[in-house]
Amino acid sequence: MKKVHLIQADITAFAVHAIVNSANKSLLGGGGLDYVVHKKAGPLMKEECIRLNQQKGGCPTGQAEVTTAGNLPAKYLIHAVGPRWLDGEHNEPQLLCDAYSNALFKANEIHALTVSFPCISTGVYGFPPQKAAEIAIGTILSMLPQYDHVAEVFFICREDENYLIYKNLLSNIDDPNIQILIS
Predict the structure, then answer these.
(1) What is the pTM of this model?
(2) Spatial distance between the Cα atoms of 50 and 61, rounded to a whole number of angstroms
(3) Most buried of 44, 80, 109, 162, CB within 10 angstroms?
(4) Residue 115: which pLDDT band, with cuts at 50, 70 and 90?
């Protein structure tokens, strides 16, 4: 049975096979979580991001790329590029859904048994937290059963507001294929 966990913690200190980073299109570091990840992961991860930027021009919104996790407690980093919230009329919900689904696809592709997700786009990108949580949870729960390798997903919320939103949403879900664990 697949497992989905909700934990309030620092995602950069949580040990899993793959950590999802809320990245920007350049993959060269930005603000918020992306800044912290680049600072803590170190030069090896940064070199891979520079290479991806040079080879592919970065990563389009809604897509994801994989690098080493460097000094973080994981083997891989999955850089998922969420959308900036403009007004909800520029395909933002679909792009956020795509960012989560492509990150989960990449996790399965690299055979990550455990993967942690942050609240993508809710910080400096300004996506409304309630809507973002609904998209994140809906996307992951609908897609997780079809993947062979990913066994556990951790939603890691740093801020109280996001944690409470996720907790309220996950508490109301009864899925016979997925065990939901709230810490």
Answers:
(1) 0.97
(2) 17
(3) 80
(4) very high
**Are the C-beta atoms of 131 and 26 separated by less than 8 Å?**
no
127-169 confidence digits (pLDDT tens): 999 999 999 999 999 999 999 999 999 999 999 999 999 999 9
The answer to whether residue 34 is catalytic is yes
- Domain residue limits, the chain: 2-182
What single-letter DSSP state applies at residue 117?
Answer: E
User: Which of the residues 34, 87, 98, 148 is marked catalytic?
Assistant: 34
**Three-state secondary-structure class, residue 46:** helix
Residue 63: which of 32, 96, 28 has the closest Cα?
Answer: 96
Closest among 117, 84, 129, 110 to 5, alpha carbons compared: 117
Residue-wise burial string across 26-49, b where 16 or more C-beta atoms lie within 10 A, e elsewhere? bbebbebbbebbbebbeeebbebb
Give the Cα separation of 91 and 174 in Å (integer): 29
Protein fold of 2-182: Leucine Aminopeptidase, subunit E; domain 1 (3.40.220)
